[in-house]
Amino acid sequence: MADLSVSLAGIKSPNPFWLSSGPVTNTYDQMARAFEQGWGGAVWKTIGEPIVNVSSRLGGLDYRGRRLLGLNNIELISDRSIEDNLKEVARLKKRYPQHAVIVSLMVEPKPEAWRELVRRTEDTGCDGLELNFSCPHGMGERGMGAAIGQDPEITQEITSWAKEHARTPVIVKLTPNITNIQVIGRAAKAGGANALSLINTISSFTGVDLDTFTPLPVVAGRSSHGGYCGPAVKPIALNLVAEIARDPQIGLPISGIGGIETWRDALEFMLLGCSCIQVQTAVVHWGFRIVEDMIDGLNNFLDERGYKTVRELIGVSVPKVGAWGQLDLSYQVRARVNKEKCIGCQLCYIACLDGGHQAIDLVPDSRIPFFAEERCVGCNLCSLICPVQGCITMQVTKPGRGISE
Amino acid sequence: MNETWKADLSTTTLATHFAEMQPPLSVDAALGEAYRCLYCYDAPCTQACPAAIDVASFIRKITTDNLKGAARVILSANILGATCARVCPVEKLCEGACVMLKEGRPPIAIGRLQRYVCDWATAHGVQVLHKGRQKNKQVAVVGAGPAGLACAAELARLGYGVTVFEAQEQGGGMATYGIVDYHLPKEIPLAEVELVRSLGVAFVFGQAVGQDVPVDNLLARYDAVFLGLGLNQGLPLQVPGAKLKGVVEALDFIQDTKTKSLARLAVGRQVAVLGGGNTALDAAVAAKRLGAEEVTVYYRRTAAEMPAYPAKQSLAKEEGVTFHWLAAPQQILGSERVEKLVLSKMCLGEPDESGRRRPIPIPGSEYKVPADMVIVALGQTMNPALPQKFGVRMANGLIQVDDSGRTSHPKVFAGGDCVNGGREVVFAVAEGKRAAYGIAQMLSEGR
Asked: What value of ipTM does the predicted structure carry?
């Protein structure tokens, strides 16, 4: 068994699997169940002046029969009092001293309000604070959440207000609803942030009801822009994580968030620079129990590959990310089909014909298409569409400048 | 039929025994199955469908909640989509061609998805087909079976005036009268008849062409005639005693289960079924479900040569039907009614023209079995009187046609069992369509 323990800006946890701020981290009972089942840390659902929520709150995106490829919500921060929340946080930290307990904070943009909230929160004995500058719905209309995280000057200023009074590490949670995330990351660093977490949810509608013509989710015949999360957002999150990780002007530890459901997803975020990761939607969908396979799968992977600790892999992929102009134009791959495996669906043919480069031909009296190597540009499309694993593969025909895979 | 004995089964029990066995797909099951479809390009399932239904297209439409579009895809290719969804040997046709099989995965349940769509369309009264712009030509269709319905529908969609003449009181032919209700409830083909009627096709029921309607009249009054006569009579059992009471033709027996009150139908206590085709096994299971105590199928070859579908064989075995292989009837004994059946044991010799090994009686092997009902299912044939009146060329008891379905008479086309010798419903549909295109070409080009 490899060592899965990690540290984010000095906050230690037995494994890199944390729960992100949201419905799953709303109460002591939930958190206790989560820690018992193996989660290494958690960010308590954002506390602040209690709000009143709407009904309904969630919208789902299904794809070909799979539920919740994406999920969006218009739920706000905690609807419970600050006092009640902090009592439970204190009880949780006392009961689980080895686990990372972070509290997400959001309060009106006044220095004294932040001073008060930071002090009261740290009295619980929590391990760190996460500043919610990123909730994209509702709170922004009140000058909080993403309204802060979309403005570098305000981000820096409010981070510094929190840092002025904080004794524990301060994590700034970034919104993806920006043009250049590096600008906001640098502002958070300038304000004194100890770490960054990203991404929060993406502004979205998951659909429109075709009977009522109301966008989803519906609240009394109206809707509002919600925050999108779930497996569908993972590529966007990975991209933004990589942007932060490869910016030498930032250089802060990262807690990765966005569509993580498995140990494989988690490891990808860590390879792109995250010291730990946070999960919300997958638990909303499947329950805390999924962490068992996350721990087991990561352990098996590390053991098989001979890594003693997961920390060895943090950021390993970052140097491989760069500008398009740095890519090697002399490198060539070409599609090859394994005729033994081909089942004859001809999806590769029509994809290459209509959406590729017309390099696959039908063969009379055969269902197995012909791959014309001289016309193939090596785009990968056919291999991505093929429903049979290992049937269409991309073969390196020119290795380029010799960087080995 | 046998009036001496009948099982004491309640009306409710009988209704259960003859209710459709295959349950419909739920919405979630249909969607889940439809999502599994790969949407192959130039899909093999469509190539394997005699009616050329664009299977991948209708399945994709299920996934987009466009059931009306799915119904149009199916019914425009096969007006008997709901019937074929139930009786097609899909494992030999569309599902047997599914690429999933090449990876050892279950094929897409195309038949059940097709039924899902067709039943939805029927239940919602959705009109997806329309008659074409009226052309000043009239076509007579003889026989309202699958071939005739398919031909009539296609011609009506092309704008031709069509009148269908049917000797029976209702349309659908074998689909209505010749397939047991637990596989194909008669309401299904009858709804398809109404679908054809909705395209403007006129039906004349209870009128036998050649008897009630003179052939010369048809040839004089109509611009073209389509013969979808089917194979309307059973091959006779030519052994002594075949005329005894209690000896029934399998298709008559099945038709009774479709047209008469099940509670009033008599069945034997010990039923012998002669033959090894689908009709034989349908009759055997129907007899069992009517309450026969023992049902035995006697077949002169072995299980390996039996033409009935494997699924029908399995069902018959599950229902308690027993099989005697290599047994051929020699004589039926009885004073007035059937009492005993005399059979001889067979052995298999060299393959005959059908490719199956020829059964040869073993001398001195005769044996008797008790039976009070004998169901004869030796296959069907056509009464040649009617095609002879049309003057169409025949061979081996079947009407001869060219690639367009045209007979030796320039105005007369034909298709279905009377041409192909008795195949699945979907082949009759395909041949009915083919003849419709042939007729349309002739009428539009004046050839």
From this structure: 0.92
